[in-house]
Amino acid sequence: MPVFSLDPAQKSWCDELRAVSADRLRPLADKGEPGRINRPLLAALGELGLLDRLLGAGALDLCLLRESLAHGCTEAETALALQGLGSYPLVQAGTEEQRLRWLPEVAAGRAVAAFALSEPGAGSDAAALALAAVREDGPDGPGWLLTGDKRWISNAPEADFYTVFARTTPGAGARGVTAFLVPADRPGLTGTPIEMLSPHPIGSLAFDSVRVGAADVLGEVDQGFRVAMNTLNLFRPSVGAFAVGMAGAALEATLLHTADRTAFGGPLKDLQSVSHQVAEMATRTEAARLLVYAAAEAYDAGAPDVPRRSAMAKLFATETAQYVVDAAVQLHGARALQRGHLLEHLYREVRAPRIYEGATEVQRTIIAKELYG
Ligand SMILES: Cc1cc2nc3c(=O)[nH]c(=O)nc-3n(C[C@H](O)[C@H](O)[C@H](O)COP(=O)(O)OP(=O)(O)OC[C@H]3O[C@@H](n4cnc5c(N)ncnc54)[C@H](O)[C@@H]3O)c2cc1C
């Protein structure tokens, strides 16, 4: 099984995706309202069959999708990834009834999903989450009332349903958390958008005695933390793929610019410090790509070293993308900082992946634990 190169069919799929993202999805993204869910963009991802593909994808396909879409349109990449993040708890742990109700709508881009784990008091330390699920059985059987807050939830507050991780057993840490599927129209659920550095649909959610029943549980009661972690394990290498896609776009723009721009009597690329900088950017991007593909293949093969590989891939790719985009800005000069320039956009986009789905420092902790374990 090659971990070092893609086969011809995979390569041509990536080329197709890059073309689609630049030609079809980019114009739809440009028409969207910054920081809001772009439903026409999601509908196009549905029509193209990409959301359907996402829901059945293994880790490598997910990475190829994210890297290739990010190259031409980060908004399309993010819209697709968030559908996956919000839906995967349902894919892995949902009942047939739950899946039939929601997944065809998600695949068509008509229903918007969101993954609600983080809270004001629980980010990196997700097992400290406190959103209370207090048992209150109704006439139809077991039930809970959800009370508390979620924060930094992508697609909130406009999503159509949330996979919500709530505390069913106080004081039990990761072992007292249950995953619930909560439709957005449940009474008592409200939300507020949050404006970020890079326009990203995100917000907070407030739960005021939101009623959920047995039919809303995803998986087993008190076993929801595993549902969250299984989801993040699949998505972690693909955050690296998103970063590699952004680094690739920055690198490509830099190659074109430094070949074209003249200064001191010739193109910038003839200055050795410029061409060496570009060589370094390309080398680090390729190294990041290989770590991401290797981690994804290990995941798909069910290899035992997935936690270490995934953590290394996410850490190295997101840090590399930050380096590459910053260097690309430098080599473009002032024009890169003009509002609306590709690199101005990437410079803002590239920052968040070093924090979410496990900050860089958390990935180092995972790697060190595996090494000494
Ligand atoms: C754009 C964006 C989208 C997001 N989308 C979602 C979403 O859809 N759903 C969701 O549930 N959450 C989402 N999040 C939240 C994200 O998962 C959290 O921001 C992340 O887990 C970090 O938590 P925190 O921000 O509270 O930082 P904290 O946990 O307070 O950590 C702050 C910093 O402390 C350091 N640190 C923390 N732990 C350690 C450690 N063990 N060792 C060393 N240093 C450490 C790191 O530098 C870290 O960045 C999103 C965040 C962003 C920025």
Overview of the molecule:
- The chain is globular and about 80 Å long.
- The chain has a four-stranded mixed β-sheet with strand order 1-4-5-8. The protein has a four-stranded antiparallel β-sheet with strand order 2-3-7-6, with no helix packed on it.
- The chain is built from eleven helices and ten strands.
- The longest helix is centred in the middle third of the chain and has 37 residues, at 224-260.
- The protein is an alpha+beta fold.
- Helix 5 packs antiparallel against helix 7.
- It folds into three domains: 8-108, Acyl-CoA dehydrogenase/oxidase, N-terminal domain (Butyryl-Coa Dehydrogenase, subunit A, domain 1, Orthogonal Bundle), CATH 1.10.540.10; 113-222, Butyryl-CoA Dehydrogenase, subunit A, domain 2 (Beta Barrel), CATH 2.40.110; 226-372, Up-down Bundle (Butyryl-CoA Dehydrogenase, subunit A, domain 3).
- Flavin-adenine dinucleotide (FAD) is lined by residues 115-118, 123-124, 152-154, 196, 200, 202, 352, 355-357, 359, 361-362, 365.
